[in-house]
């Protein structure tokens, strides 16, 4: 429709100059800037939340290490007692001291709630405090200690009767009234009578040579010193912003048995229960919870991890967290400040933009009207604007002057135009053809000379290496057959020899592939770049698993490429592996594919970008040279050279951009499959 209008002499209708100037003035401020601001705020919010989660995860690690240290320390102390000279002295038939006194003294010194000595039949030889009844002797902790020398420690759940058998005071301390808690799993229980105990045992030898076990434990129910120590370790003074507070809790099943979370002022939230969602994730599925959670009466950035007893069952949880409200308020205040600042800046600048634009509207509209008249064939049309000092006024004066010249020379230009166009097209076409032939011939000559030299060397190297390899492989097989079944004794050495011989063979094959690429050319077919990239990722997944590299895909290519699929995969895998090696500490691997035009030819570009160590300009100039490598002892220096050869054979090219410390981007361009 527009072409027809242009041929008939009618101008193509479009947006007015006024509208476009307003759009130019206001679009960045009212559209683009808000979009960029929104994206920046969204990214900042995500990073802010991720930072909080990372912090609470580190807090949980400290709490976990403290609990593990308590377990280890208890086992070591019992082991030290079982090996002490005094312990063996009081066990001797002519003992001068009392075993009971030693256990009492040791229990108080190391802060245990109970400590007793039992033989392998379950008989208690001495205890502190005196036991009310015979305790269980089939705990995995005790059985492990009786069967070995290493102290056994763990967290075990004692029933109320089992605690009462040790001490009625422990049974009473373990008892907690359950407090109705919103969002918790419904229950008919009103009290929690079980106790969570740091349980440890160490093997001891009796004078008669029999095995015994020193068994000790600390009840964690209402052990406020234990939980407050964790809280002080994790949330030291000034470690959180003003208004926030750190909390730590120990759960038996889903019940808080030791916590510094407050139910209300002056009372700890003992007996309250965790929400059903957290209970399902941590106790049900065994996952560590790292997220925001409602704790008793407010929202906290929370971390929960399951606790496993000596039977391997999940019996409780360890929790640390800090109040979310101060961080949320700070985040919202920052957001409001940014929005208010944007509104204030917009309100101040938009009127200025409109005023400036209005001084341009009228002169430009007169210039546009004059040009429209000239396009309709009225070469006598003029702007007739007064001489002004600004750029638009000077443009109008020059336009009138040019229109005068155009009117006078129009006839001559029409006569010369066609002849000149014909000559220019002919000369340009001839010159382009000549340049293309010269460039192709030069490249072929240089490549031929290089390949001829490398091919001659490679053929000799391949011949000289392959013959000894064949002899070595044959003799290796003969040795295996001679040894027969005894060859399995050295199967690791044989495997290493096979691998090294195979590696040598692969190096020779790469040399030949570089020197004589036409002999290794495969069947070409059409492929979608995205599918080839997807097939490459599983081939390098084992390398991605070794480091913390995030893979980002951006597949926007709609065209197909014509190339052997295995060769294209070889090129992309080589580039991806190089990118992974450039990020030993982790980073982001970005894989993009999009339609791209190069030198007037339609095609597809595939980018492999990393955030690694980058390369200097000197290195980039040499990376496609044969046998050049930056990996020192690794690689042959042929990967990129072979890749460039494979791509150029299909009419494409590989280019590289990089800065030291800022990562690298390799771009593979291939022409569109016809």
TrEMBL record:
Mode of membrane association: Multi-pass membrane protein
Domain HAMP span(s) in chain numbering: 358-411
Top-tier EC class: transferase
Histidine kinase domain span: 460-674
EC code: 2.7.13.3
Gene3D superfamilies: 1.10.287.130, 6.10.340.10, Histidine kinase-like ATPase, C-terminal domain (3.30.565.10)
Sequence intervals crossing the membrane: 21-44, 335-354
Catalytic activity: ATP + protein L-histidine = ADP + protein N-phospho-L-histidine
Subcellular localization: Cell membrane
Keywords carried by this UniProt record: Cell membrane, Kinase, Membrane, Phosphoprotein, Transferase, Transmembrane, Transmembrane helix
Protein name: histidine kinase
């Amino acid at each position: 429709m527009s072409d027809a209008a242009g041929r008939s002499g009618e101008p193509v209708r479009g947006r007015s100059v006024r509208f476009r100037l307003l759009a130019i003035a206001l679009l960045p401020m009212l559209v683009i800037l808000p979009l960029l601001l929104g994206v920046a705020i969204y990214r900042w919010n995500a990073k802010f939340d991720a930072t909080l989660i990372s912090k609470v995860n580190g807090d949980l690690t400290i709490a976990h290490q403290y609990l593990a240290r308590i377990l280890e320390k208890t086992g070591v102390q019992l082991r030290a007692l079982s090996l002490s000279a005094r312990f063996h002295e009081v066990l001797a038939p002519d003992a001068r001291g009392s075993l009971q006194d030693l256990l009492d003294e040791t229990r108080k010194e190391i802060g245990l709630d109970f400590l007793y000595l039992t033989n392998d039949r379950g008989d208690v030889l001495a205890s502190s405090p005196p036991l009310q009844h015979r305790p269980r002797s089939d705990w995995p902790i005790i059985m492990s200690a009786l069967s070995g020398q290493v102290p056994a420690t763990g967290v075990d759940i004692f029933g109320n009767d089992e605690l009462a058998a040790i001490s009625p005071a422990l049974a009473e301390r373990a008892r907690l009234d359950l407090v109705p808690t919103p969002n918790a799993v419904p229950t008919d229980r009103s009290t929690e009578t079980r106790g969570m105990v740091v349980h440890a045992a160490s093997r001891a030898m009796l004078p008669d040579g029999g095995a015994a076990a020193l068994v000790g434990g600390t009840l964690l129910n209402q052990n406020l010193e234990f939980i407050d120590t964790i809280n002080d370790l994790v949330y030291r003074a000034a470690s959180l912003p003003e208004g926030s507070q750190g909390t730590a809790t120990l759960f038996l099943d889903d019940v808080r048995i030791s916590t510094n979370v407050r139910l209300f002022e002056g009372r700890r939230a003992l007996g309250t229960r965790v929400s059903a969602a957290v209970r399902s994730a941590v106790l049900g599925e065994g996952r560590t919870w790292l997220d925001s959670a409602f704790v008793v009466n407010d929202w906290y950035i929370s971390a929960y991890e399951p606790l496993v007893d000596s039977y391997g069952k999940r019996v409780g949880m360890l929790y640390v967290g800090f109040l979310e409200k101060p961080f949320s308020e700070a985040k919202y205040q920052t957001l409001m400040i940014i929005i208010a600042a944007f509104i204030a800046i917009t309100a101040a600048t938009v009127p200025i933009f409109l005023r400036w634009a209005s001084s341009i509207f009228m002169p430009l509209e007169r210039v546009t009207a004059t040009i429209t008249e000239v396009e309709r064939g009225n070469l006598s049309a003029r702007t007739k604007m007064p001489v002004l000092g600004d750029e638009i006024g000077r443009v109008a004066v020059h336009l009138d002057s040019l229109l005068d010249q155009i009117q006078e020379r129009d006839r001559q230009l029409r006569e010369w135009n066609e002849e000149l166009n014909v000559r220019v097209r002919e000369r340009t076409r001839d010159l382009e053809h000549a340049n293309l032939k010269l460039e192709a011939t030069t490249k072929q000559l240089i490549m031929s000379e290089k390949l001829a030299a490398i091919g001659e060397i490679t053929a000799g190297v391949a011949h000289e290496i392959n013959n000894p390899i064949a002899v070595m492989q044959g003799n290796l097989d003969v040795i295996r057959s001679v040894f027969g079944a005894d060859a399995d004794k050295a199967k690791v050495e044989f495997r290493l020899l096979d691998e090294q011989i195979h590696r040598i063979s692969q190096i020779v094959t790469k040399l030949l592939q570089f020197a004589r690429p036409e002999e290794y050319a495969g069947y070409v077919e059409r492929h979608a770049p995205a599918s080839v990239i997807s097939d490459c990722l599983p081939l390098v997944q084992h390398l991605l698993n070794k480091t913390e590299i995030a893979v980002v895909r951006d597949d926007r290519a709609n065209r197909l490429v014509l190339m052997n699929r295995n060769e294209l995969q070889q090129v992309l895998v080589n580039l991806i592996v190089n990118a992974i090696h450039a990020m030993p500490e982790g980073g982001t691997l970005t894989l993009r594919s999009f339609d791209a035009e190069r030198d007037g030819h339609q095609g597809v570009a595939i980018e492999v970008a990393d955030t690694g160590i980058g390369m200097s300009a000197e290195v980039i100039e040499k990376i496609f040279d044969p046998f050049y490598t930056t990996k020192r002892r690794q690689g042959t220096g042929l990967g990129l050279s072979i890749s460039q050869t494979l791509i150029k054979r299909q009419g494409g090219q590989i280019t590289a951009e990089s800065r030291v410390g800022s990562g690298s981007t390799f771009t593979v361009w291939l022409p569109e499959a016809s």
